[in-house]
Amino acid sequence: MKLMVTDSQRCVGCQLCMFACSRRQGEVGLSEACLGVRSIGGMEKGFSVIICRACPDPPCARVCPNQALTPRQDGGVRFNPDQCIGCRNCQKACLIGAVYWDDDTQKPEICIHCGYCARFCPHGVLKLVDGEGAVK
Amino acid sequence: MKQPDPLSRVLYIDLTSKRFWVRQRDDLFSRYLGGSGVATQLLLEECPPGCDPLGADNPIILAVGPLTGLYPLASKTIAMFKSPHTHNLGESHCGGRSAISIRLAGYGAIVIKGASRLPLYIAIHGNEVYFRNAASIWGLENSFTVGRVLRDNEPGSGLRSIMRIGAAGEKLVTYSSVVTESYRHFGRLGLGAVFGSKKIKGIVISGKHSLPVSDIKAYRQSYDEIYQTAVTSPLMKKYHDLGTAENVLPLNSLNGFPTMNLTSTQFKEAANISGEAFAERYLGRRLACSHCPVGCIHIAALREPYADEAYFYKTDMICYDYEPIYSLGSMLGIGDATAFLKLMEQIEIFCIDAMSTGVVLAWATEAQQHKLISTEHTLGLELKWGDAGTYMKALRLIINQPNQFYQALAKGVEYASSIYGGREFALSFGGNEMPGYHTGAAAHVGVVAGTRHSHLDNAGYSLDQKALSKGQNLTPQEMAESLVAEERWRQVLSSLVVCFFARGIYTPEKVISTLKSAGFFLSLHHLDAIGREIYQAKYRFKMQEGFSLDNLKLPSRIYETPSSSGKIDPDYVRACLTHIKKIIQE
Q: Which element (helix H / strand E) includes A71?
């Protein structure tokens, strides 16, 4: 299963998805969010919804010097925090900026494509889908 | 949890000495929850009696609440200050990302004191506070441009709020506003001028703290309940679909839609500026405040050709709501939606309160009709109902204040009418211009006796409509008691910083259950006592600054033009006010 953005033009910028992501991880707030919603040059232009695209050959995993990130079967990566040395290579390698950072642990926040965020998107912007169609 | 709750941390910023510090104020948050309750106490602490609202002594207080960041729809920031418009309690509420940013930056409240000689903007990123030289953007009259500059110069994209002022705040117009995230405002009572007087062009605030909850499992469950109610309940449908502009047609058909300076309560062109008309012809985008699933912010897309070059267009995105439609539309006789939107856009650019501006222009129009003022005063302008182009010119003159007349208009209708006459049709209540409801006595009594002279203090307009639909005739005592009870409860909601649109979701029982997650274990009795105490504390400040229910003068226009409930009886209004005074003194 993979998370996808169906249409970012429908996004109203409420950030409920980000709060949901933190909440799923047992935190309240936005510190653990593995996805982001930001305006495109001011609210008047609408929003970018930046999520992990579950790349079939993820560059974040390629640049990890200690195998903390390993490709997962449906695309994207699995994260083993014990292996992570906090070098931020993964963050730099992701062109779309979908590797978020936990300032407390100094380790990346990696989307596991669970779809919890999509359950709290009131306008159908996020969706959890099967297979190849997800990579969009 | 990673860290203790930062809610009780108050960030103090002194602009004069360019210093900042943090104090733990559990004493305030444990007793008054947050928001309005805590801000009132901080105002009483920090604002010297009788201070000049545009002097360095006047503090700016921003406060959020215990549910902010925890639950949806608790995303308002409460600003408190002494109002340069009413010279009394200044309280204004704003959404956008402001509340979430303050809470997740690690604060429950921010107190800004002193004044800077150098124009600056304040950047708050978590524990770091920076005073940035804003000389290069001081004088930039367009708040959208100011927002763009601050966006480009500060980190925290997606996690920040950008508050700023336009030309009105710099020029100390007493009803200038502060805008956040392009479309949300600390709209009323002149916070923009207080920013301007301190030489603050803007405040950028960002952060992503974690917040503690007492029981994560119970919290998730109560969160899901609130969320489900918010997205499925008919309670929020109105705000979701057409937005507050939905009120235009019903109020017009009820004879409650103030038109042409309240010479009428029905506007024949109402259908052109209704929520339905905007949705059909202009609605280009909807937005939400952070952590709110509703998305009540309705933005019109206005495509316009340039007159001087063929095939050359611009498209502006302009926010509309019921109150500006009333004040800049029907109140000025403007029934052309495009003309309304252009005027609205200019209001946003200058950062000036749409409601007060509309009422000021409406008074000036009638004053000119009655020959109380001439074209010498207006510098050649002939103000006429529906003439949006002339109103646009007058708006710019209010900002620039080139003569005594426009200097007077920049202080509101109460002041202007005290100089030029026409008090009987100067629609000011406690010094603040009227909101868009002529539904009956409760609407006006509610505004004049409300602590901040806002229709949202106690929703008198709603009380009128309920009584009307049930065929009830409330006694003055019943009306007074209902208004005060509602205003006391709203002190609780605004201390939790719950959006008043969500008041149907956050029932007292729901408030008690959600507060448990935030570590507050309160009973209905506690909540009631907190609401009463905050209400009294606000009135204490008001009395300290010279407010009295005894010497209020209401414009006679409200008694002349029949309301939805028929003609309003001045004796009835006086009796209501007498009862409210009794309740406050008890």
A: strand A69-71
- Is the per-residue pLDDT at B441 higher than 90? yes
Helix (H) or strand (E) holding B133: strand B128-133
Instruction: Tell me the two tokens of residue B131.
Output: 């005073």
For residues B272 and A118, give the distance between their C-alpha atoms in angstroms, rounded to a whole number: 38
Contact of B542 with B82, CB cutoff 8 Å: no
Query: What topology is assigned to B233-429 in CATH?
Result: 1.10.569
Q: B398-437: buried (b, 16+ CB within 10 Å) or exposed (e) per residue?
A: bbebeeebbbbbbbbbbbbbeebebbebbbbbbbbbbbbb
Range of the domain at A24: 2-56+97-134
Helix (H) or strand (E) run with residue B464 in it? helix B460-470
Nearest CA to CA, how far is B208 from chain A (Å)?
5
- Assign residue B310 a region: left if phi > 0, alpha if psi is -120 to 50, beta otherwise? beta
| ipTM reported for the complex surpasses 0.85 | yes
Residues in B whose CB is inside 8 Å of some CB of A read 2, 69-70, 72, 100, 103-104, 144, 147-148, 151, 157-159, 181-183, 208-213, 216, 219-220, 223, 227, 231, 285-295, 297, 299, 317
Domain at B6-206, CATH class = alpha beta
Q: What is the least distance, in Å, from the CA of A89 to any CA of chain B?
A: 20
**Angle made by CA atoms A9, A10, A12, in degrees to the nearest 5:** 105
Q: What CATH number should be reported for the domain holding residue A127?
A: 3.30.70
- Tell me which amino acid residue A49 is: V
A18 contacts A117 by C-beta, under 8 angstroms = yes
Residues A25-59 have pLDDT tens digits of: 999 999 999 999 999 988 888 999 999 999 999 99
d(C-alpha B486, C-alpha B500), whole Å: 12
Chain A contact probe: residue of B233, B285, B303 with most A CBs at under 10 A: B285
- Does the pLDDT value for residue A134 go beyond 50? no
Torsion angles phi and psi, residue A70, rounded to 5: -130, 140
Q: For the whole model, what pTM was predicted?
A: 0.97
Largest CA distance in chain A: 42
Residues 6+ away with beta carbon under 8 Å from B455: B435, B436, B437, B443, B446, B447, B461
